[in-house]
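Let's sit down with a protein and look at its sequence and fold side by side. We need material for that, and I hope you will provide a protein of your own picking. Once you have written the record down, we can walk along the chain together.

***
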Amino acid sequence: MSDNSSDNSSDDSSKDKAGHGAGRRRFPDISSRAYEHPADRSALVALRKLSGFDTVFKALSGLLPERSLRLLFLSDSVRVSDQQFQHLHAMLLDACYILDLPKVPPMYVTQDPQPNAMCIGLDEPIIVVTTGLVELLDEEEMRAVVGHEVGHALSGHAVYRTILLFLTNFALKIAWIPLGNIAVMAIVTALREWFRKSELSADRAGLLVGQDLRASMRGLMKIAGGNHLHEMNVDAFLAQAEEYEAGGDLRDSVLKILNVLPRTHPFTTVRAAELKKWAESRDYQRIMDGHYPRRAEDKDTSVSDSFRESASHYAETVRSSKDPLMGLVRDIAGGASDLGGRLRDAFGGGPGHTPKDGPGGPGKGPEAPPGEPRP
């Protein structure tokens, strides 16, 4: 489903982008597998291997309002070009040159004070950034964001994000049908979990384009706290992520899960910490040294190998996590001898805590006053 009204920049090829890159390293024929989070990569490899996958989504495109979205942005937003938002146009060409994206997607700026950006579309991706984001970020911070969205396009995330938007709206429309809504929301919840991982992948793509970790950190910090950079500190911001992961007890762990479930993006401090960890990894250094998987090899990628990598990643996450719930999972997996004691301690009782007798009976604490919750 092509749109003849797209910007001429969408017809630019890699050869037209010569001269871009401004001293930054370029990655010819880089496969998105190079920067994708293991959970994101395994899902994408599996979907790409499914027989008839493209046919199914072509059929779905007739049900989704993609053409309507394209017309909406064309009619009510400003299309980035060499005549409008020239600095963003240069960044877009630069990002596509560095990641060797064969076709430059159309990009629009839409009036919205909320800082946001997205890459959507089933047939051809389009990138949309809000005025709130453009006004918030400096040039290098914005370069990382544009690279982030180009990374989404290269990975094919735009397809799944469009479906997620459609299903979320669909679930709202059928909320009055109990079983139907539950079924759709189960799919939406699973898609959101995958999409949160895809955001970590795109953050990595943004770093490959900008090649300035501090700029990426500043951008995430501004998205969280606004344009008060003189009042903020990257190291203190990263310390928040450490406190978020390690702090509290099992009740806090459960609340973290409930807080993140409705979101399509991980929390900003978590994104910053994850990106810093990847930037310090051997995987990132190998890419910067020119050693990365090529697109020409994508067809030979093993689904089972990708799932093993994903499983290994999650296992390592459990092993290294400081979250109390993950600590309990480790204890259970290791056959903790005093599981009851661990549960009591994890839920805030603390070691050596002895409940007092109360009206509820021996070994029980005092009854909560009427109308008040129990601790």
